[in-house]
Design a protein that fits this description.
Blueprint lengths: L3 E6 L10 E11 L37 E7 L2 E9 L1 E6 L4 E5 L3 E5 L4 E6 L9 E11 L10 E5 L5 E6 L5 E8 L1 E2 L2 E2 L17 E7 L4 E4 L7 E8 L4 E2 L2 E2 L4 E6 L4 E4 L5 E8 L7 E3 L2 E3 L2 H14 L20 E3 L5 E3 L1
Antiparallel strand pairs: 1-20, 2-9, 3-8, 4-7, 4-9, 5-6, 5-8, 6-25, 7-10, 11-12, 12-15, 13-14, 15-22, 16-21, 17-20, 17-22, 18-19, 18-21, 23-24, 25-26
Family: Belongs to the pirin family.
Protein name: Pirin family protein
Length: about 325
Amino acid sequence: MSSIKKVKPLNFPWETSDPFLFCVHHADNYPKGNEAMGPDASLAGRNIGQDFTIKDGWRMYHGSKVPGFPPHPHRGFETVTVVTRGFIDHSDSLGATARFGNGDVQWMTAGKGLQHSEMFPLLNRDKPNPLELFQIWLNLPAKSKMVEPHFGMLWNETIDKIDYSDENDNGTQVTLIAGNLDDYSGPQIPPNSWAADPNNEVAVWIIDMEPNAEWTIPAASEGLNRTIYYFEGDGLNVDDKEIPSYNGVELYSEKESVLKNGDQPARLLLLQGRPINEPVVQYGPFVMNSQEGIQQAMMDYQKDQFGGWPWPEAEHVHAREKGRFAIHADGREEVK
Protein backbone atom coordinates (compact mmCIF):
# COMPACT_ATOMS: atom_id res chain seq x y z
CA MET A 1 0.00 0.00 0.00
CA SER A 2 1.10 3.57 -0.66
CA SER A 3 2.86 5.50 2.08
CA ILE A 4 1.18 8.76 0.99
CA LYS A 5 -1.37 10.38 3.28
CA LYS A 6 -1.85 13.72 1.55
CA VAL A 7 -0.32 15.96 -1.13
CA LYS A 8 -0.71 19.72 -0.82
CA PRO A 9 0.82 22.81 -2.48
CA LEU A 10 3.52 24.72 -0.63
CA ASN A 11 2.68 28.25 0.51
CA PHE A 12 4.71 30.85 2.39
CA PRO A 13 5.50 29.71 5.04
CA TRP A 14 5.34 25.95 4.55
CA GLU A 15 2.73 24.19 6.67
CA THR A 16 4.19 21.71 9.15
CA SER A 17 2.90 19.18 11.69
CA ASP A 18 3.53 18.75 15.43
CA PRO A 19 6.26 18.93 16.80
CA PHE A 20 7.16 21.52 14.12
CA LEU A 21 5.44 24.91 14.02
CA PHE A 22 6.36 26.04 10.52
CA CYS A 23 9.17 26.19 7.97
CA VAL A 24 10.21 29.13 5.79
CA HIS A 25 12.31 28.73 2.65
CA HIS A 26 14.20 31.91 1.74
CA ALA A 27 15.86 32.00 -1.69
CA ASP A 28 17.18 35.40 -2.80
CA ASN A 29 19.50 36.23 -5.67
CA TYR A 30 21.13 39.26 -4.07
CA PRO A 31 23.27 41.53 -6.26
CA LYS A 32 26.79 42.77 -5.52
CA GLY A 33 27.26 44.25 -2.06
CA ASN A 34 27.92 47.90 -1.27
CA GLU A 35 30.24 49.40 1.34
CA ALA A 36 27.73 48.67 4.12
CA MET A 37 27.21 45.04 2.93
CA GLY A 38 23.75 45.87 1.67
CA PRO A 39 22.61 45.61 -1.96
CA ASP A 40 24.56 47.72 -4.45
CA ALA A 41 21.26 48.63 -6.06
CA SER A 42 18.43 51.08 -5.62
CA LEU A 43 15.91 50.34 -2.85
CA ALA A 44 13.29 52.51 -4.52
CA GLY A 45 9.88 50.90 -4.78
CA ARG A 46 10.43 48.62 -1.79
CA ASN A 47 8.40 48.65 1.42
CA ILE A 48 11.46 49.05 3.62
CA GLY A 49 10.94 47.35 6.96
CA GLN A 50 8.33 44.99 5.48
CA ASP A 51 9.85 44.00 2.14
CA PHE A 52 8.65 40.43 1.57
CA THR A 53 7.76 40.74 -2.11
CA ILE A 54 10.37 39.44 -4.55
CA LYS A 55 11.59 42.32 -6.73
CA ASP A 56 14.54 41.80 -9.07
CA GLY A 57 14.95 38.38 -7.49
CA TRP A 58 15.43 39.41 -3.86
CA ARG A 59 13.86 40.92 -0.74
CA MET A 60 15.07 43.16 2.11
CA TYR A 61 12.71 41.59 4.70
CA HIS A 62 12.83 43.82 7.81
CA GLY A 63 16.27 45.25 7.03
CA SER A 64 16.74 48.90 6.04
CA LYS A 65 20.42 48.79 4.97
CA VAL A 66 21.34 45.10 5.10
CA PRO A 67 18.76 42.42 4.24
CA GLY A 68 17.49 40.31 7.09
CA PHE A 69 15.76 40.43 10.45
CA PRO A 70 16.88 43.02 13.04
CA PRO A 71 16.33 42.29 16.78
CA HIS A 72 13.16 40.40 17.63
CA PRO A 73 12.19 38.22 20.62
CA HIS A 74 11.34 34.53 20.95
CA ARG A 75 10.01 32.38 23.79
CA GLY A 76 8.84 28.78 24.11
CA PHE A 77 10.32 27.04 21.06
CA GLU A 78 13.46 26.51 18.97
CA THR A 79 14.70 27.89 15.67
CA VAL A 80 16.71 25.66 13.36
CA THR A 81 18.35 27.76 10.63
CA VAL A 82 19.86 25.81 7.75
CA VAL A 83 21.94 27.97 5.37
CA THR A 84 22.83 26.21 2.13
CA ARG A 85 24.18 29.30 0.30
CA GLY A 86 25.35 32.68 1.56
CA PHE A 87 25.89 33.86 5.12
CA ILE A 88 24.00 35.00 8.22
CA ASP A 89 25.35 37.28 10.93
CA HIS A 90 23.67 36.34 14.22
CA SER A 91 23.68 38.45 17.39
CA ASP A 92 21.58 38.02 20.53
CA SER A 93 20.70 39.53 23.87
CA LEU A 94 22.83 36.98 25.73
CA GLY A 95 25.97 38.36 24.07
CA ALA A 96 26.41 35.47 21.63
CA THR A 97 27.25 36.25 18.03
CA ALA A 98 28.32 34.41 14.89
CA ARG A 99 28.77 34.36 11.14
CA PHE A 100 27.72 31.09 9.54
CA GLY A 101 26.64 29.76 6.18
CA ASN A 102 27.40 27.61 3.14
CA GLY A 103 26.09 24.45 4.79
CA ASP A 104 26.18 25.45 8.47
CA VAL A 105 23.17 25.15 10.79
CA GLN A 106 22.31 27.20 13.85
CA TRP A 107 20.12 25.47 16.45
CA MET A 108 18.80 27.93 19.02
CA THR A 109 16.64 27.05 22.01
CA ALA A 110 14.77 30.24 22.88
CA GLY A 111 13.40 28.74 26.10
CA LYS A 112 12.34 31.42 28.57
CA GLY A 113 13.24 34.18 26.15
CA LEU A 114 15.87 36.12 24.25
CA GLN A 115 16.22 38.60 21.42
CA HIS A 116 18.29 37.90 18.34
CA SER A 117 18.99 39.37 14.93
CA GLU A 118 19.65 37.51 11.69
CA MET A 119 21.21 39.74 9.05
CA PHE A 120 22.34 38.68 5.57
CA PRO A 121 25.64 40.49 4.81
CA LEU A 122 26.40 40.76 1.10
CA LEU A 123 30.12 40.10 1.28
CA ASN A 124 30.96 40.03 -2.43
CA ARG A 125 31.47 43.45 -4.00
CA ASP A 126 32.45 42.10 -7.43
CA LYS A 127 29.81 39.42 -7.99
CA PRO A 128 26.29 38.45 -6.87
CA ASN A 129 25.52 37.17 -3.35
CA PRO A 130 22.94 34.35 -3.64
CA LEU A 131 21.33 33.26 -0.36
CA GLU A 132 19.28 30.17 0.44
CA LEU A 133 18.14 29.13 3.89
CA PHE A 134 15.44 27.23 5.72
CA GLN A 135 14.21 28.38 9.10
CA ILE A 136 12.33 25.68 10.95
CA TRP A 137 10.44 26.34 14.17
CA LEU A 138 10.45 23.30 16.46
CA ASN A 139 8.14 23.39 19.47
CA LEU A 140 9.19 22.75 23.05
CA PRO A 141 7.06 20.71 25.48
CA ALA A 142 5.58 22.50 28.48
CA LYS A 143 8.33 21.21 30.78
CA SER A 144 11.00 22.88 28.63
CA LYS A 145 9.37 26.14 27.58
CA MET A 146 11.09 28.13 30.32
CA VAL A 147 14.54 26.56 30.19
CA GLU A 148 17.61 28.75 29.86
CA PRO A 149 18.22 29.82 26.24
CA HIS A 150 20.88 27.89 24.35
CA PHE A 151 22.76 28.89 21.19
CA GLY A 152 24.47 26.10 19.28
CA MET A 153 26.30 25.76 15.96
CA LEU A 154 26.23 22.66 13.78
CA TRP A 155 29.10 23.36 11.42
CA ASN A 156 29.00 22.03 7.89
CA GLU A 157 32.09 19.92 8.55
CA THR A 158 30.29 18.01 11.34
CA ILE A 159 27.13 17.22 9.35
CA ASP A 160 27.04 13.85 7.56
CA LYS A 161 26.28 13.80 3.83
CA ILE A 162 25.36 10.23 2.91
CA ASP A 163 25.70 9.15 -0.71
CA TYR A 164 23.56 6.43 -2.29
CA SER A 165 23.54 5.00 -5.82
CA ASP A 166 20.71 3.09 -7.46
CA GLU A 167 21.15 0.15 -9.84
CA ASN A 168 21.78 2.57 -12.70
CA ASP A 169 24.43 4.50 -10.73
CA ASN A 170 22.20 7.55 -10.35
CA GLY A 171 23.00 9.22 -7.06
CA THR A 172 21.07 10.56 -4.09
CA GLN A 173 22.71 12.50 -1.27
CA VAL A 174 21.07 12.94 2.14
CA THR A 175 22.33 15.72 4.41
CA LEU A 176 21.66 14.60 7.97
CA ILE A 177 20.94 17.70 10.07
CA ALA A 178 19.07 15.70 12.72
CA GLY A 179 18.02 12.09 13.14
CA ASN A 180 19.45 8.68 12.29
CA LEU A 181 19.86 7.05 8.90
CA ASP A 182 21.51 3.64 8.44
CA ASP A 183 24.69 3.76 10.55
CA TYR A 184 24.77 7.56 10.70
CA SER A 185 23.38 9.96 13.27
CA GLY A 186 23.04 13.70 13.13
CA PRO A 187 25.26 16.13 15.07
CA GLN A 188 24.74 16.81 18.77
CA ILE A 189 21.44 18.59 19.46
CA PRO A 190 20.97 21.13 22.31
CA PRO A 191 20.09 19.26 25.52
CA ASN A 192 16.56 20.56 26.13
CA SER A 193 15.37 20.08 22.57
CA TRP A 194 12.52 17.70 21.74
CA ALA A 195 14.96 16.34 19.17
CA ALA A 196 17.55 15.46 21.82
CA ASP A 197 15.49 12.44 22.97
CA PRO A 198 16.02 9.63 20.42
CA ASN A 199 12.58 8.22 21.30
CA ASN A 200 11.05 11.23 19.55
CA GLU A 201 12.73 10.26 16.25
CA VAL A 202 13.06 13.85 15.07
CA ALA A 203 14.63 14.03 11.62
CA VAL A 204 15.66 16.99 9.48
CA TRP A 205 17.15 15.88 6.16
CA ILE A 206 17.89 17.57 2.85
CA ILE A 207 17.61 15.09 -0.03
CA ASP A 208 19.39 15.85 -3.33
CA MET A 209 18.58 13.50 -6.20
CA GLU A 210 20.33 13.30 -9.55
CA PRO A 211 18.18 13.01 -12.70
CA ASN A 212 16.40 9.63 -12.87
CA ALA A 213 17.70 8.59 -9.45
CA GLU A 214 15.71 6.22 -7.25
CA TRP A 215 15.98 6.11 -3.46
CA THR A 216 13.82 4.70 -0.67
CA ILE A 217 13.08 6.55 2.56
CA PRO A 218 13.25 3.82 5.21
CA ALA A 219 10.38 3.12 7.56
CA ALA A 220 10.43 4.55 11.08
CA SER A 221 8.12 4.01 14.05
CA GLU A 222 4.38 4.27 13.71
CA GLY A 223 2.68 7.47 14.85
CA LEU A 224 5.32 9.98 13.80
CA ASN A 225 4.52 12.99 11.67
CA ARG A 226 6.60 12.79 8.48
CA THR A 227 6.48 15.20 5.54
CA ILE A 228 8.69 15.72 2.51
CA TYR A 229 8.77 19.15 0.85
CA TYR A 230 9.47 18.95 -2.88
CA PHE A 231 10.78 22.45 -3.56
CA GLU A 232 13.01 21.99 -6.61
CA GLY A 233 12.73 19.73 -9.65
CA ASP A 234 10.14 18.32 -12.03
CA GLY A 235 8.87 14.77 -12.46
CA LEU A 236 9.17 13.23 -8.98
CA ASN A 237 7.17 10.09 -8.20
CA VAL A 238 6.49 8.81 -4.68
CA ASP A 239 5.28 5.19 -4.59
CA ASP A 240 4.51 5.57 -8.32
CA LYS A 241 2.32 8.64 -7.73
CA GLU A 242 3.40 11.73 -9.66
CA ILE A 243 3.99 14.70 -7.34
CA PRO A 244 3.63 18.22 -8.76
CA SER A 245 6.61 20.49 -8.28
CA TYR A 246 6.53 22.66 -5.15
CA ASN A 247 4.25 20.41 -3.14
CA GLY A 248 4.45 18.78 0.26
CA VAL A 249 3.72 15.10 0.80
CA GLU A 250 2.54 13.78 4.18
CA LEU A 251 3.70 10.19 4.66
CA TYR A 252 2.92 7.26 6.93
CA SER A 253 6.09 7.05 8.99
CA GLU A 254 5.91 3.27 9.49
CA LYS A 255 6.09 2.64 5.72
CA GLU A 256 8.92 2.89 3.24
CA SER A 257 8.51 5.56 0.56
CA VAL A 258 10.06 4.93 -2.85
CA LEU A 259 11.24 8.13 -4.56
CA LYS A 260 11.80 8.09 -8.33
CA ASN A 261 13.11 11.29 -9.82
CA GLY A 262 12.47 12.71 -13.30
CA ASP A 263 15.04 14.03 -15.73
CA GLN A 264 16.00 17.11 -13.69
CA PRO A 265 17.87 17.36 -10.38
CA ALA A 266 15.46 17.32 -7.42
CA ARG A 267 15.74 18.73 -3.92
CA LEU A 268 13.54 17.85 -0.97
CA LEU A 269 13.42 18.65 2.74
CA LEU A 270 12.20 15.94 5.14
CA LEU A 271 10.77 16.84 8.56
CA GLN A 272 9.78 14.08 10.95
CA GLY A 273 9.05 13.77 14.64
CA ARG A 274 6.87 12.36 17.35
CA PRO A 275 4.09 14.84 18.13
CA ILE A 276 4.25 16.61 21.48
CA ASN A 277 0.44 16.52 21.69
CA GLU A 278 0.06 19.58 23.90
CA PRO A 279 -1.99 22.74 23.36
CA VAL A 280 -0.25 25.34 21.18
CA VAL A 281 -1.07 29.01 21.67
CA GLN A 282 1.00 31.34 19.50
CA TYR A 283 1.21 35.10 19.37
CA GLY A 284 3.87 36.18 16.88
CA PRO A 285 7.27 35.13 18.27
CA PHE A 286 5.87 33.59 21.48
CA VAL A 287 4.62 29.98 21.57
CA MET A 288 3.15 28.72 24.84
CA ASN A 289 0.47 26.29 26.04
CA SER A 290 -2.14 28.83 27.13
CA GLN A 291 -3.29 32.39 26.63
CA GLU A 292 -2.07 33.13 30.15
CA GLY A 293 1.40 31.98 29.09
CA ILE A 294 1.31 34.37 26.14
CA GLN A 295 0.24 37.28 28.35
CA GLN A 296 3.08 36.52 30.77
CA ALA A 297 5.57 36.41 27.89
CA MET A 298 4.41 39.83 26.70
CA MET A 299 4.69 41.32 30.19
CA ASP A 300 8.15 39.83 30.73
CA TYR A 301 9.37 41.17 27.41
CA GLN A 302 7.97 44.63 28.10
CA LYS A 303 9.71 44.61 31.50
CA ASP A 304 13.29 43.94 30.41
CA GLN A 305 13.30 43.06 26.67
CA PHE A 306 14.72 39.64 27.63
CA GLY A 307 18.02 41.21 28.62
CA GLY A 308 18.11 44.17 26.28
CA TRP A 309 20.30 44.66 23.23
CA PRO A 310 24.07 44.76 23.90
CA TRP A 311 25.17 45.53 20.32
CA PRO A 312 25.91 48.97 18.85
CA GLU A 313 23.38 48.67 16.01
CA ALA A 314 20.12 46.88 15.43
CA GLU A 315 21.29 45.59 12.02
CA HIS A 316 24.49 44.29 13.57
CA VAL A 317 26.92 42.77 11.07
CA HIS A 318 30.58 41.81 11.28
CA ALA A 319 33.52 43.06 9.26
CA ARG A 320 33.47 41.99 5.63
CA GLU A 321 36.73 40.06 5.96
CA LYS A 322 35.52 38.09 8.99
CA GLY A 323 35.20 34.34 8.36
CA ARG A 324 32.88 31.77 9.87
CA PHE A 325 32.94 31.88 13.67
CA ALA A 326 30.81 31.81 16.80
CA ILE A 327 31.23 33.45 20.19
CA HIS A 328 28.95 31.93 22.80
CA ALA A 329 27.39 33.73 25.77
CA ASP A 330 30.01 32.21 28.10
CA GLY A 331 32.84 33.61 25.94
CA ARG A 332 33.74 30.33 24.27
CA GLU A 333 34.83 30.96 20.68
CA GLU A 334 34.76 28.71 17.63
CA VAL A 335 36.57 29.66 14.42
CA LYS A 336 36.14 27.82 11.11
